[in-house]
């Protein structure tokens, strides 16, 4: 198992600043959630069992439960402050949710139980993992999904070069400043000195999509991208369950 490292997300102040300031101002955040919902409508209409990895305050699950009233969800986050905020934010749907404190370095079945998921989602979380663990987690997600299940990852990914990374940084700072009304110089200073920056372990989206294809996901693709913000994922074949039963 990959060795765990300390994370700034255990600091309540870091979690609070992200949830109260940065989360709502992420460029095209609503569009990314809409892309997720469109993928679910198309590939896995009416999911009943949802797993949300790195759930934060549960913003993805809330969107899904609002759309699918028969669904229930397991929400997992390694940050205790995030888990506490999720319990507060999901109080209205407490009877439809199980909210767990757990590290994504731990095998998925140990975290989420044995019930196969119709849908696994993640929002801005998996990029904190080492690359080898990212790939092994994607394989665990594939195994954990029911036949025909869908995986959607709304994620921070690496730029193709340092020049493009600098372009993204400037565009992101401009966007946050315009959305929040804060002085651009202040936003720039906060962005470049943010304590959670050292937690990022970014990989290019095309590399991660190729991993999904190698693992066996169908329709694996990047469905949305704005510089370093991407929505990607894939579908588990409907035939897997029947093929597994035949082999047994």
Structural class: alpha/beta
Question: Which radius of gyration do the C-alpha atoms yield?
Answer: 18 Å
Number of discrete helical segments? 10
| Main sheet characteristics | 7 strands, mixed
Unreliably modeled segments: 1-5, 242-248
What is the rounded distance between the termini?
Answer: 29 Å
What's the CATH superfamily, by name? Vaccinia Virus protein VP39
Count of strand segments: 7
How much helix, percentage-wise, in residues?
40-55%
CATH architecture: 3-Layer(aba) Sandwich
- The helix-strand sequence is HHEHEHEHEHEHHHEEH
Number of domains as seen in the coordinates: 1
CATH class reads Alpha Beta
Apparent shape: globular
Percentage of residues in strands: 15-25%
How are the strands of the largest sheet arranged?
3-2-1-4-5-7-6
Descriptors for this entry?
alpha/beta; 7 strands; disordered N terminus; 21% strand; 46% helix; globular; disordered C terminus; 248 residues; 10 helices; 7-stranded mixed sheet; Rossmann fold
């Amino acid at each position: 198992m990959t060795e765990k490292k300390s994370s700034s997300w255990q600091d309540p102040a870091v979690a609070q600043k992200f949830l109260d300031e940065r989360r709502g101002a992420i460029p095209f955040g609503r569009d990314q959630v809409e892309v997720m919902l469109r993928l679910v409508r198309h590939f896995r209409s009416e999911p009943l069992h949802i797993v949300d990895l790195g759930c934060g305050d549960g913003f993805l699950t809330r969107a899904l439960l609002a759309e699918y009233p028969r669904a229930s969800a397991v929400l997992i986050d390694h940050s205790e402050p995030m888990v506490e905020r999720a319990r507060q934010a999901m109080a209205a749907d407490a009877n439809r949710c199980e909210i767990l404190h757990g590290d994504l370095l731990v095998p998925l079945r140990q975290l989420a139980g044995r019930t196969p998921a119709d849908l696994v989602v993640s929002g801005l979380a998996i990029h904190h993992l080492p690359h080898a663990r990212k790939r092994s987690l994607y394989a665990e997600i594939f195994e954990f999904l029911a036949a025909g299940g869908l995986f959607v990852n709304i994620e921070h990914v690496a730029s193709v070069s340092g020049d493009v990374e600098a372009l993204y940084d400037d565009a992101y700072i401009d966007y946050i400043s315009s959305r929040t009304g804060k002085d651009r110089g202040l936003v720039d200073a906060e962005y470049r000195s943010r304590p959670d920056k050292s937690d990022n372990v970014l990989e290019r989206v095309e590399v991660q999509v190729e991993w999904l294809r190698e693992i066996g996901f169908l329709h694996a693709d990047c469905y949305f991208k704005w510089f370093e913000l991407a929505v990607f994922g894939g579908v588990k074949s409907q035939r897997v369950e029947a093929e597994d039963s035949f082999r047994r």
